[in-house]
Amino acid sequence: MKVKTTRFGEMEVEDSNIIKMLRGPLGFEDYTEFCLIQHRPDIKLSWLQSTQEESLAFVVVDPSEFVSNYEIEICDADTERLNLECADDALVLSIVTVNNQDMRVTTNLAAPIVINSKELCGLQIVLQDNRYSVKHTLFENSQQEVEEKTALEAA
């Protein structure tokens, strides 16, 4: 399948790699088909790109790469909707934002996107756990932060 994107131009994506969202991300519920694009292999950021709207893409990360004790509990209804047989089948992603005023990079730990990695169906889940914020600071001042911000700005 050819996918048009505003950031990367036209890309070829295998049909077998299309993620079917049961309901699109919050605020974008009508967009239900996405693909994951790894912009640069040396950066932990990916793009969750809509296949339906070329300008709709979310920067996402695996939150466990940045928050060592990040654990989520998925209710039985969502586990069933996603047809998750075991926790290892769940790919958990969180949406990243950059504050244009102070260039602070945050991620939404309170509403992760959970994807069944075997069946490639997904759902954004709003957690009932108050431990996690919608604007969790992703990076501390470090060389990695500079590289990640630069990659975000370049894309």
Structure characterization notes:
The chain is mostly beta strands and 155 residues long. It has a single domain (2-139), classed as BH3618-like. The chain contains two helices and eleven strands, in the order E-E-E-E-E-E-H-E-E-E-E-E-H. The protein has a seven-stranded mixed β-barrel. A two-stranded antiparallel ribbon has the order 1-2. A hairpin with an 8-residue loop joins strand 4 (33-37) and strand 5. The radius of gyration is 15 Å and the shape is globular. The model has no long low-confidence stretch (mean pLDDT 88).
State the end-to-end distance.
22 Å
Number of strands: 11
Nearest-angstrom radius of gyration? Answer: 15 Å
Order of helices and strands: EEEEEEHEEEEEH
* Largest beta-sheet characterization: 7 strands, mixed, barrel
- Average pLDDT reading: 88
Dominant shape: globular
Strand order of the largest sheet: 3-4-5-6-7-9-10
CATH level 4 superfamily: BH3618-like
The CATH class label is Mainly Beta
Domains counted in the coordinates: how many?
A: 1
Roughly how much helix do the residues carry, as a percent range?
10-25%
Classify the beta-strand content into a percent band: 25-35%
Number of helices: 2
CATH fold assignment: BH3618-like
Please mark out the parts with pLDDT under 50 across 5 or more consecutive residues, or reply none. none
What is the second-level CATH architecture?
Roll
- Sheet/helix structural class: mainly beta
